[in-house]
Amino acid sequence: MDFDLPEDLQMLQQAAREFAENELAPRAAEADKEESWVGEQVRLCAEMGFLGMAVPEQYGGSELGTLGSSLVLMELNKGCASTGTTVSVHNSLTCESIVRFGNDEQKQRYLPKLATGEMLGAYCLSEAGSGSDAGSLVCRATPDGDDWILDGTKLWISHGNQADLAVIFARSDADAGTRGITAFLVDTSSEGYKPGKKERKMGLRGSPTVELQLDNLRVPAANVLGEVNDGFKIAMALLDGGRIGIASQAIGIADACLAASVKYAGEREQFGKPLAAFGAIQEKIADMATYIEGARLLTLRAATLKDGGKPYGREASMAKLQASRGANYCAKEAVQIHGGAGYTRDFPVERYFRDARITEIYEGTTEIQTLVIARTYLR
Ligand SMILES: Cc1cc2nc3c(=O)[nH]c(=O)nc-3n(C[C@H](O)[C@H](O)[C@H](O)COP(=O)(O)OP(=O)(O)OC[C@H]3O[C@@H](n4cnc5c(N)ncnc54)[C@H](O)[C@@H]3O)c2cc1C
Fold first, then answer.
1. 50 C-alpha to center of ligand 1: Å?
2. Same domain, 188 and 324
3. Same structural domain, 161 and 53
4. Model confidence over 137-172: pLDDT tens digits?
5. Ligand 1 atom closest to Cα of 169?
6. CB under 6 Å to ligand 1: residues?
């Protein structure tokens, strides 16, 4: 078995690495401090083709596959996790929703614009009463002639106030549980699409997370994604893929923690020696690197299975579980290695620590990943 990446993927990885170092990392602290939208960074990602990673070339995308996208996301998130989140949601939850479940007309209409970044995509599943238990959502979809009317409130929508196209899940049959949910493609310029309160968050502060009011929102039947009442299956299928994106994000954050720790441990001296000379510090560096490499292998394996058309749900959950726990371990130890300096905003590890936290929460919490994995063994 050959674990080396082919040359084209190595070149892609290198290009993404240089881009993240030159364009994202220098802007990340400011976006975090000001809680300002990473719009310019997302525009630059679009120029690199990173908004079309999931879109086939025939629609103007860069069609990098899940493996290529994962490698890019690791690098982007090493530079700026807020940008990484935006790029991940846009590709793996919006573009993929249309690539996998859209009809020809929807593909023609949306994919070329999503691929270039002319349109930015959001994903609207969560509500106040339905997070982990997404199937209990209550936002209503009511048929009205050739249209549907959406009503209700979505919560936690990443860049819901910046997106041009939103995939919205709503209840089309009140009595059918998870078989009564439909997915809709919604142009956010539609009357009735109303972004509201922006959350004040611990991390990912350059990625606005907003409440979304669906107020008598009229959607043409042509914008139903997949079949009516099939939305829950679509939502779950997309999250399986999205988890590879979040695993990649967690690895990027963990990589940044390791790099900062190695640098600091080499520079800072105590007891007449660099910190790197102490066994306790070496052990932390070794554990961080081992966590990261294990998570990377799991993530690239899940991506390879998905690209090969094989089942990958369990592997995607394992990748997310391992990578997100690893990122939180690495962030904790990175702050520890920096001592008091790590507790200040003068060093990026303080931000990495806050950003890492989300990777265990969204697109399925750590606890939900364990349920998904255990179920495949205990059935
Ligand atoms: C920054 C951010 C961005 C987000 N972006 C989006 C987005 O773009 N689109 C979107 O739709 N959603 C988004 N979300 C929502 C996110 O997916 C949910 O927060 C997540 O699914 C958890 O749901 P919850 O917050 O309601 O927590 P709950 O479901 O209330 O969970 C609370 C705790 O209970 C645990 N728990 C729940 N059920 C079980 C169980 N059966 N067994 C064991 N433990 C359990 C959980 O693991 C967790 O620890 C975002 C959230 C955040 C914070």
1. 27
2. no
3. no
4. 999 999 999 999 999 999 999 999 999 999 999 999
5. 11
6. 89, 123-126, 131-132, 156-158, 201, 204, 209, 358, 361-363, 365, 367-368
